[in-house]
Amino acid sequence: MCLAIPAKVIKIDGNKAEVDFGGNTREVSIVLTPQVKVGDYVLLHAGFAIQVIDEKEAKEIYEAWEEAYAALQK
Amino acid sequence: MQPYKNKKEYARYLLDKLHEEAKRPLTVMEVCGTHTVAIARSGLRELLPETIRLISGPGCPVCVTDDLDLDLAIALSRQKGVILATFGDMMRVPGTSSSLQEEKGRGADIRVVYSPTDALTIARENPHSQVVFLAIGFETTVPAVAVTIEQAIQEGLKNFSILSLHKLVPPVMRALLEDPDVRIDAFLNPGHVCTILGVEPFRFVAEEYGRPCVIAGFDAVDILEALLMIVRQQNCGQPKVEIQYRRAVRPEGNEVARAYMDKYFVPAPAVWRGIGEVPGSGLQLREEYADLEARKRFSIKVEPGKRVKGCACGEILKGLKLPYECPLFGKACTPMRPVGPCMVSSEGSCAAYYRFGRKKAGVVR
């Protein structure tokens, strides 16, 4: 329920931003992360950006869980 | 993990270290449903040293919603002219005699939303109906609801209200630490709750109760790394709050988000399913915004219904029982026909154990 996923900000219009995650775009609120700029990565929860993260952090979060799980199963 | 070629190698290193260093018994509670799922799914429990016992706590907002609170939501959905907007997870949670899904089948206007702002859109589009948003969620979700309330006020929307069933994580951790039946040596803290809260609200765990507390991310390597941090804190006798999940958690949290929470809500007592009333562990709207609270707007009284018998969700949420120890588990209670909320939510302990199997969940070593 508290899941948050990373997305890249591609356009900002006032309190709203268009973000891209894995090729899908959607509009989210950036009221909680007023410092965000186009090109930044954010963590999304319930239609809101809740934290700005850097690109490397975003990629690390993106990295499929499966990889680590698969590693641990062997 | 720089010196390691890949996650697999790093995971092996962490497991080796844990086996080497975790000499004393250690019961760690993970206070986050997403951790519960990650642990069950990865089969982590069976790979850990026998000294480490992982128990699942009250970390799923759906699972901890009291059945009588759900009865209230159901009663609201039965009101003429009311549209109830809710996150999808709540649809199948049983109250004492029905669920939102059953009510929808009987004709109640209940709509699943992804964001609280979707409920505002419904309110704008249906000016002759009253839209009630079922506000559940921990600190991760509350700021989004606070912003939505602000928007409703600014737009002068008179047909929008919330039923606040929000819960706060630090007070329930304190309640568990105070419970003489519960034995917890350390906590794996919920990553995204801490994205908002930062470290400060958790210092009491280390300073007053002397327990290690590590804010962990959500893949198996994150959890292993956090466990090693806990073991090392235990070994050197210096409990503190540490952040493993640096990718998403800053020590100060998100101050803007917390300011929104504080602007619209104040802590209030809340009832957690199976745990009971915990002081200051819920949120109610501040007095000046109280007319946006559905309880006030509709003044509905719900007769206390009979709680389900035999369901061990309460003990499971306190880490006293494993899902398999509930007499209903897998028999009267399955994900298709859940009796208790821990089986309903995909992040509930029972659902995670059911889905990922007995051996992987670490019950059989």
Structure overview:
The complex is a heterodimer of chains A (74) and B (365). Chain A has helices spanning 55-62, 65-73; strands at 5-13, 16-21, 24-29, 41-45, 48-53. Chain A is an alpha+beta fold and 74 residues long. Residues 64-72 of chain A have low confidence and may be disordered. With 365 residues, chain B is an alpha/beta fold. Chain B folds into 3 domains: 7-61 and 183-243, 3-Layer(aba) Sandwich (Rossmann fold), CATH 3.40.50.11750; 67-168 and 254-298, HypD, alpha/beta domain 2 (Rossmann fold, 3-Layer(aba) Sandwich); 313-356, no CATH class. In chain B, the strands form 3 sheets. A 5-stranded parallel sheet of chain B has the order 2-1-7-8-9. Chain B has a 4-stranded parallel sheet with strand order 4-3-5-6, with helices on both faces. Chain B has a two-stranded antiparallel sheet with strand order 10-11. In chain B, strand 8 (213-216), helix 11 (220-236) and strand 9 (241-243) form a beta-alpha-beta unit. In chain B, helix 1 (7-21) runs parallel beside helix 11 (220-236), helix 2 (33-42) packs parallel to helix 16 and helix 7 (142-155) crosses helix 12. The two termini of chain B are 29 Å apart. At the A-B interface, strand 5, helix 1 and helix 2 of A face helix 1, helix 2, helix 6, helix 7 and helix 9 of B.
Helix/strand order of chain A, N-terminal first: EEEEEHH
Mean pLDDT of chain B: 92
Strand element count of chain B: 11
**CATH fold-level assignment of chain A:** SH3 type barrels
If classified by CATH, what would the architecture of the largest domain in chain B be? 3-Layer(aba) Sandwich
Q: Largest beta sheet of chain B: what is the strand line-up?
A: 2-1-7-8-9
The value of Rg of chain B in angstroms is 21 Å
What's the total helix number of chain A?
2
Shape of chain A: globular
For the terminal residues of chain A, how far apart are their CA atoms?
A: 29 Å
Which structural class best describes the helix and strand composition of chain B?
Answer: alpha/beta
CATH H level of the largest domain in chain B: which superfamily?
HypD, alpha/beta domain 2
Number of domains of chain B: 3
The third-level CATH topology of the largest domain in chain B is Rossmann fold
Query: Kindly, what is the distance between the CA atoms of the first and last residues of chain B, rounded to a whole number of angstroms?
Result: 29 Å
User: What CATH first level of the largest domain in chain B would be assigned?
Assistant: Alpha Beta
Largest interface, C-beta within 8 A: A-B, 30 and 53 residues
Low-confidence stretches of chain B: 360-365
Global geometry of chain B: globular
Please state the structural category of chain A: alpha+beta
Q: What would CATH call the class of chain A?
A: Mainly Beta
